[in-house]
Design brief:
4 strands; single chain; 9 helices; two-stranded parallel sheet; about 200 residues; mainly alpha
Length: about 200
């Protein structure tokens, strides 16, 4: 299903005027709230002002773009992995996805309309999509965790990673592998899925 963006101040079903069954058909619904946050506002304004001040330096930056994939190349890559890879779940990824789904079902007071079998199907699709993106034919533990992070970012109340904070108020980390590992550890601990 499509990725949809909404700006909300109360319940998702109220603001979108979508019924629970229809809302459950979306894999991800990102909630965009413009809350007052002085620290984040300072980060955003400093970034915008710095970008405007660096317009003269853009010639140097454009030379670095040669090492980044062009949009046509990215499209070809996505088309290729969609056609070539049909990832299957491993026992570890099944266990993580199942544990998360069961946790959501137990705590479905705020997101009851979203916590259906369709959520389980969404988790599987998102984990498979991540595996494809990573050029794999199997869904690993990392793919399951990435799917959970996507779902958690799309919920108004998080069942598991509230301690991570608002994904929309975060920067790209310098060390993404370490950040993945940290968030993965948080998820696995909350699910009780760490095997020593």
């Amino acid at each position: 299903m499509p990725l949809t963006f909404f700006s909300l101040r109360s319940a998702l079903s109220v603001n979108t005027t979508l019924s629970g069954p229809l809302l459950s058909r979306f894999d991800i619904v990102l909630v965009l709230l413009d809350k007052k946050n002085p620290e984040w506002d300072a980060v955003v304004s400093n970034h915008i002002l710095a970008e405007k001040g660096e317009e003269n330096c853009r010639r140097d930056y454009s030379e670095d773009l040669g090492s980044v994939w062009s949009l046509p190349m990215l499209r070809r890559y996505i088309h290729y992995v969609k056609q070539r890879f049909k990832p299957v779940l491993t026992k570890d990824s099944e266990r993580i996805i199942s544990s998360y789904y069961q946790l959501q079902r137990r705590s479905a007071t705020h997101n009851a309309a979203r916590t259906t079998v369709r959520m389980l199907e969404s988790l599987i699709r998102l984990a498979q999509a991540h595996a494809r993106l990573m050029f794999r034919n199997v869904v690993t533990q990392l793919d399951a965790i990435a799917a959970i992070l996507c779902i958690e970012s799309s919920m108004t109340t998080s069942a598991i990673v509230d301690s991570v904070g608002n994904a929309l108020h975060s920067n790209f980390t310098e060390f993404p592998d370490q950040e993945y590992a940290k968030q993965g550890k948080i998820i696995l601990e909350k699910l009780g899925a760490i095997s020593d």
